[in-house]
Every structure is written in C-alpha cells, then in structure tokens.
Write a structure and sequence with these properties.
Blueprint: H1 2-11, E1 36-41, E2 46-48, E3 53-55, E4 58-63, E5 69-74, E6 77-82, H2 129-136
Antiparallel strand pairs: 1-4, 2-3, 4-5, 5-6
Length: about 140
C-alpha cells in the first residue's frame, strides 16, 4: 500500500491549497497570454469615513481556463459563480458552438376570405330560362 501511495503522489503531487494566481499551477491558456482576466468596476474613489477609508469598487476575476467561472470581491467579501458545461478550455473536447442564426420576420400574408364563414355567401340568382322559351313559342304542348 505504501508503494501504491508513493506512485500516486509521484503521478499527481499534492498542491498547496492557497497560492497566487501567477504560480506555475496556473499556466496561461494555450493561445492566450494568461488564464485570468481581472477588472475593477464601479467607483474607485477612496472615501474617508472618519475611522477607515472606504472604496465602493468591485474587483471582478474571470477564468479563461474555465469559461463561465466568475468571482467578484468587495470589502473583504466575495461571491463566486460558475455557469458552464464543465469542460476546460484547451481540452480536446472543448468545441464551442455558435448560436443559431436569428431569422428575420416572415412577410405578412395577404388577407383572404374566410374559408368557413359563419353564414353562407349569397348565391347569384339563376336566370329564368322558362321565360325565354315562352317568348320564343316553344311552350304549349297542345293544351
């Protein structure tokens, strides 16, 4: 068992839990200069509160190695969130897809009569063909 634990420690050496962002364990993402983006947002002015100096700026740290991992910190408090698919950038399975194309609105269709109206349409009156026959003298069977 000692031998197996020695092999495991050699293959995957333990890392110090708290280390700086510049340590070798945080090598830059392939193709980029770094693996982190930092930004200070908000009011960076330092205000004197009598007892202590206050600053209302927020420090935002975004991971480029784990797309979707963001940490914000202000006044000694921090909040981290990760919204991603659990795949590191640079891994062989990292293949981001583009969002689908947004299509334009369809052309409005021309209004047409109702195919099943509530009331039947008026039918045109049939021409009186009997009146034409009487005028021509065809009527009269000898009565």
């Amino acid at each position: 068992m000692e031998e197996e634990l020695g092999k495991l420690a050699a293959d995957d050496p333990p890392q110090e839990r708290y280390r700086s962002l510049g340590d070798e364990g945080y090598a830059p993402v392939p193709g980029l200069e770094t693996s982190w983006l930092t930004r200070v947002c908000g009011d960076t002015q330092v205000y004197n509160d009598g007892e202590a100096a206050l600053c209302y700026a927020v420090n935002v740290i975004r991971s480029l190695r784990w797309p979707g991992a963001v940490t914000v910190a202000k006044g000694g408090k921090y909040c981290s969130i990760y919204v991603g698919d659990g795949i590191k950038r640079g891994d062989t399975s990292f293949n981001p897809t583009e969002p689908p194309e947004v299509h334009s609105d369809p052309v409005d269709q021309i209004e047409r009569p109702e195919p099943t109206p509530l009331e039947p349409p008026e039918e045109p009156a049939e021409p009186d063909t009997d009146a034409e026959k009487v005028a021509e003298g065809e009527e009269g069977d000898g009565d």
